[in-house]
């Protein structure tokens, strides 16, 4: 009988308060840092090539796509297959596992490789910001076209998808 | 449990013990249930809080990191720290941005560096519970590979609110156990009553049986162990009652037989006595050897008459029909008359205080004295003394002799019927009932008769209470 009381007391006390604990893993580390933004252009063989723009930070997907629309700059080895436009405002909306980009372009302004450039740039920034690598991108053009409905992946990262 | 040492704290009654056991069991059960529910609730609460805070921290850093310049300057670190919230520390190589308390332990820092993941630790500082989170901020390349950026974020969150919630849970659990307490007491009392009622009835039955009421029974109720016990006790009482009845019948049969036999013997004995009277008067003209036979026949007949009279007297005592005829008697005179009537005045010394007057049955006093003195004359040796004395409470009549006294075996049995101290001397003139009758007569007066050895002989002491006490 005498041995029961300390046990009972210990049990009661154990139910009180927040128990301290040692360090335990509570999740994945956050990410999103980058010295610049990676844009994708095409080389002479029309292969996709990354180009790092040293903006000092990663920035957002619309910023990256807007930057992509301005072209590769003076780098002679790379070119873009997106027609130059004066308006570079990009609207971004997200759904689960999907990034929807509303571009100020028609489908005639881009080649399929040009669409890949946009998709790779957007998904690259998405992954660098800590997003899922299985996310797909939907490129919506200003005129209605079946191309606007496609859910696309970047051919460079497709091995991960 | 040491049963050998009765403790002041251990309740003795069955009711108290049941009560204590019930309350203990209830409180223990309630406490254990309350503890386990409070414990699991508090664990769930702490875990969910930890997950929520960790997710929030990762989300905040994720949201603000793309806007930070890299490699960061002090301004970038300050902005990140502000985004994370109070009590945060952000480091990058030599740069450091600190706000509020830095509670990160070395173990946490080491875990952050080795795991390269978000690490949580709960600590208590000055009685306040804290959740401390630490995480590196990673650099991810577009194809998904991650490398540490060198920026580490530590953030502490006060868990006092959570602790208050847990304390509230515990208090609620405790008070719930408290509510169960009176209920347990009521249940214990009910259970105790249902157990104790049959026990009390059994006790009453046993008490009545002890007091001689052999008809006492308790009706068994239900089919539990107590009902079985009750049935067993009833059977036992039944069996005892049967044997007692049989024994009583046998005893009364034996007594009635002795009474009947002695009564039946009286009539032929009267005739025989009359014939012996005639024979005695005619003995003078007989031949000497015929006369001797006649004398023997006369003596034995007298013995037989005495035996039958004694038997009838004993039967009257056994049947409870012996009656006292009380009158005022001068005890000394009565004793002297008794001795004189039997011609023992010469052989017996009588010492007495004068004028002891007592209310008693003169005939029965005569029987007692005659039996005691006769016994002393037959078995003891002269001088036989009779001493009558009195005090405020009782009258004593002592009969002593100078004989061999009573043997150790004889002493406790001397008042038994037909007891003969010496097996060789069976043909003594007494009936063997004299001392037994003397004892019954003494008891009838409310007095006592004892035998002992004193002054080199046997001593019989009759004590009679004064003023009719004890009758």
TrEMBL record, chain A:
Record's signal peptide: 1-26
Key word Signal present: yes
Keywords (A to Z) from UniProt: Signal
Gene source species: Amycolatopsis ultiminotia
Name of this protein: GerMN domain-containing protein
Source domain of life: Bacteria
From TrEMBL, chain B:
InterPro entries assigned to the protein according to its UniProt record, in alphabetical order: HAMP_dom, HATPase_C_sf, HATPase_dom, His_kinase_dom, HisK_dim/P_dom, HisK_dim/P_sf, Sig_transdc_His_kin-like_C, TCS_sensor_his_kinase
Protein name: histidine kinase
Record-annotated Histidine kinase domain positions: 260-468
Keywords assigned by UniProt, alphabetized: Kinase, Membrane, Phosphoprotein, Transferase, Transmembrane, Transmembrane helix, Two-component regulatory system
Keyword field contains Amino-acid biosynthesis: no
PANTHER family per UniProt: SENSOR HISTIDINE KINASE TRCS, SENSOR HISTIDINE KINASE YKOH
Database matches in SMART domains: HAMP, HATPase_c, HisKA
Annotated ranges, domain HAMP: 193-245
Transmembrane stretches, start-end: none
EC class (word): transferase
EC number(s) from the headed UniProt entry: 2.7.13.3
Substrates-to-products reaction catalysed: ATP + protein L-histidine = ADP + protein N-phospho-L-histidine
Signal peptide: none
Compartments it resides in: Cell membrane
GO molecular function: kinase activity
């Amino acid at each position: 009988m005498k041995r029961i009381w300390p046990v009972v007391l210990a049990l009661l006390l154990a139910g009180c308060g927040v128990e301290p604990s040692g360090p335990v893993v509570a999740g994945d580390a956050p990410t999103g840092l980058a010295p610049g933004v990676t844009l994708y252009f095409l080389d002479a063989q029309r292969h996709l090539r990354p180009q790092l723009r040293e903006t000092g930070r990663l920035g957002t997907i619309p910023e990256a796509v807007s930057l992509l629309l301005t072209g590769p700059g003076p780098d002679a080895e790379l070119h873009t297959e997106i027609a130059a436009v004066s308006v570079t405002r990009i609207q971004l909306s997200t759904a689960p596992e999907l990034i929807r980009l509303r571009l100020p372009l028609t489908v005639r302004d881009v080649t399929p490789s040009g669409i890949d450039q946009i998709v790779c740039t957007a998904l690259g920034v998405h992954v660098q910001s800590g997003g899922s690598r299985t996310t797909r991108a939907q490129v919506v053009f200003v005129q209605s076209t079946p191309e606007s409905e496609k859910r696309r992946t970047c051919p460079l990262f497709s091995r991960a998808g | 449990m040491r049963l050998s040492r009765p403790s002041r704290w251990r309740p003795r009654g069955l009711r108290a013990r049941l009560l204590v056991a019930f309350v203990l069991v209830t409180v223990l059960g309630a406490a254990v249930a309350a503890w386990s529910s409070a414990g699991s609730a508090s664990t769930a609460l702490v875990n969910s809080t930890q997950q929520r805070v960790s997710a929030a921290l990762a989300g905040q850093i994720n949201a603000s990191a793309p806007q930070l310049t890299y490699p960061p300057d002090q301004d970038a670190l300050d902005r990140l720290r502000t985004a994370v919230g109070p009590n945060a520390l952000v480091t990058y190589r030599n740069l450091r941005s600190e706000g509020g308390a830095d509670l990160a332990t070395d173990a946490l820092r080491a875990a952050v560096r080795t795991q390269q993941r978000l690490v949580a630790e709960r600590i208590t500082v000055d009685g306040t519970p804290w959740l401390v989170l630490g995480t590196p901020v990673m650099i991810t390349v577009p194809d998904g590979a991650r490398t540490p950026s060198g920026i580490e974020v530590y953030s502490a969150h006060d868990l006092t609110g959570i602790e208050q919630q847990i304390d509230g849970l515990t208090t609620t659990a405790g008070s719930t156990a408290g509510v169960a307490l009176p209920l347990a007491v009521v249940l214990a009392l009910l259970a105790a009553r249902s157990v104790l009622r049959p026990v009390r009835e059994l006790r009453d039955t046993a008490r009545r049986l002890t007091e001689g009421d052999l008809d006492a029974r308790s009706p068994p109720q239900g089919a539990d162990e107590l009902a079985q016990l009750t049935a067993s006790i009833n059977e036992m009482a039944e069996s005892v009652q049967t044997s007692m009845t049989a024994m009583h019948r046998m005893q009364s049969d034996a007594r009635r037989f002795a009474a009947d036999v002695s009564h039946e013997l009286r009539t032929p004995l009267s005739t025989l006595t009359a014939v012996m009277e005639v024979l005695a008067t005619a003995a003078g003209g007989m031949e000497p050897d015929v006369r001797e036979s006649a004398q023997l026949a006369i003596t034995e007949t007298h013995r037989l008459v005495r035996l039958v009279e004694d038997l009838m007297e004993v039967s009257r005592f056994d049947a409870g029909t012996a009656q006292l005829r009380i009158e005022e008697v001068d005890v000394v005179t009565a004793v002297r008359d008794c001795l004189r009537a039997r011609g023992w005045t010469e052989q017996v010394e009588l010492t007495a205080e004068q004028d002891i007057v007592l209310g008693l049955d003169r005939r029965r006093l005569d029987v007692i004295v005659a039996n005691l003195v006769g016994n002393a004359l037959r078995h003891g040796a002269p001088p036989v003394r009779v001493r009558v004395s009195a005090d405020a409470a009782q009258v004593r009549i002592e009969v002593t002799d100078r004989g061999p006294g009573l043997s150790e075996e004889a002493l406790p049995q001397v008042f038994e019927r037909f007891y003969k101290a010496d097996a060789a001397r069976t043909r003594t003139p007494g009936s063997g009932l004299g001392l037994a009758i003397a004892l019954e007569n003494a008891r009838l007066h409310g007095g006592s008769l004892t035998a002992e050895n004193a002054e080199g002989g046997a001593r019989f002491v009759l004590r009679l209470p004064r003023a009719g006490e004890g009758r």
